[in-house]
Amino acid sequence: MTANVPSTDPAVYDSYQTKWSTLPGTPEAWLARAREVAQVLSQDAAQRDQENKSPQAEVALLKHSGLLKLLGPKKYGGGEQPLSLGYQAIREVAKADGSIGMLLGYHLLWSTTANLVGTPDQIERTHQLIISNNYFVGGAVNPRDSDLKITSDGDHLIFNGAKFFNTGGVVSDLTVLEGVLEDTNGDGNGGGHIFALIETRQDGVQFAHNWHNIGLRLTESGGVKIDNVRVPWTDALGWDAATKKPLDITSSQFAALFLPTIQLVFGNFYLGIALGALEFASKYTTTNTRPWPFGGGDKESATDEFYILERYGNFFAHLRATETLADQAGERLSTLYDKYSGAKRAELTAQDRGEVAEWVASVKVVTTDVGLRVTSGVFEVTGARATALKVGLDRFWRDIRTHTLHDPVAYKNRELGRYVLLREYPVPSWYT
Length: 432
Prior knowledge:
By secondary structure, the protein is α+β, with helices and mostly antiparallel strands. The chain has three domains: 10-136, Butyryl-Coa Dehydrogenase, subunit A, domain 1 (Orthogonal Bundle); 139-246, Butyryl-CoA Dehydrogenase, subunit A, domain 2 (Beta Barrel), CATH 2.40.110.10; 255-422, Up-down Bundle (Butyryl-CoA Dehydrogenase, subunit A, domain 3), CATH 1.20.140.10. The protein is 47% helix and 11% strand. It has 13 helices and nine strands. The protein has helices at residues 15-19, 27-42, 45-51, 56-65, 83-96, 98-110, 113-117, 120-133, 258-287, 306-340, 350-377, 394-403, 409-422; strands spanning 137-140, 148-153, 156-163, 174-181, 193-199, 205-207, 224-232, 239-240, 245-246. The strands form two sheets. Strands 1, 2, 3, 4, 5, 6 and 7 form a seven-stranded mixed β-sheet that branches. A two-stranded antiparallel sheet has the order 8-9. Strand 2 (148-153) and strand 3 (156-163) form a beta hairpin. Helix 5 (83-96) runs antiparallel to helix 6, helix 5 packs antiparallel against helix 10 (306-340) and helix 10 packs antiparallel against helix 11 (350-377). The radius of gyration is 22 Å and the shape is globular. It comes from Aspergillus cavernicola. Keywords: Oxidoreductase. Pfam families: Acyl-CoA_dh_2, Acyl-CoA_dh_N. Residues 33-126 form the Acyl-CoA dehydrogenase/oxidase N-terminal domain. InterPro entries: Acyl-CoA_DH_C, Acyl-CoA_Oxase/DH_mid-dom_sf, AcylCo_DH-like_C, AcylCoA_DH/ox_N, AcylCoA_DH/ox_N_sf, AcylCoA_DH/oxidase_NM_dom_sf.
């Protein structure tokens, strides 16, 4: 259950429920809606970051905007847009607020998890539940540690344990749980692992409210204790409720797209944060930064400084190239979803999966490198006064630095090296 913790007030965004009463009708209109959300968030992003309140209002804004429904089927009230557009929407929101861009990205992933590992019935029930109610979905999924155990009790599963990290759970309507069924190997490649969607607001879900990190402060990514949470066997995604055995889809190459899918979520909000930092810094430079008085030439403006022009140009070029790479990867992943969804999920080959995984790994490497470089480098072209807490320029670097430690990017570089030199595809795992 959620404790009484300081939260932002959803009422501040009530007017947008009427303003955005209908969903966008075209891909362009969806991206325009994402930019509108970003514009709203940008007005007080630095202040909200510093206050570090639970983002109840920000999630309400996402609900009002319709962005939570972007990927959902139209028959249940969704936008039915391709995954590639979802990635671009994440990027747009993250430009203004990295935390809320991350929450949107994780929601879009968790709300479509059944597409990857669920039965046809589970896919339909999940979409109808989430989209028709405009629910926000969080996730208590941290497979590095098998710290959530599952036991079987007749027609139900019982989850017990804890997760050191969960994302968005405190402000969610539904939470994805992932754990290991007792007496199974839980080998990290699907064996014994079960995903299930539960109602967040119940006595057995106890949040630690301990997310006090340097970045992504509004993501509610702290710990959660799960105490005797009961789930019908019929809600165990990709498992046969009668035999209590996993179906073939859970170990398929299509199910293994889950990891490239979430890694590309990461890359896109990294990229959005970096783009937002460049935009924010450029406005500051043109309005506040002063030329260096001892550099010669009696420059009248910071925009006359050679080194400032050179740095901005270099940052822009690298970010433009990174956007193109991210879009290409998103299109390739979307193509696999479209081609192999439904009854064709089992037809996806290891080669197809491996090729797209290496595109996504490339995005992860480049967005990490470029994102950290840009978000730290903008201070060199804004000046000493830009370090003032009230400016808020530091939040961009803090956000990227925090999440890029999710998994060591060195392993992605090694993975790509083996692909280049040995033509090896990565073996599907919880991080590849």
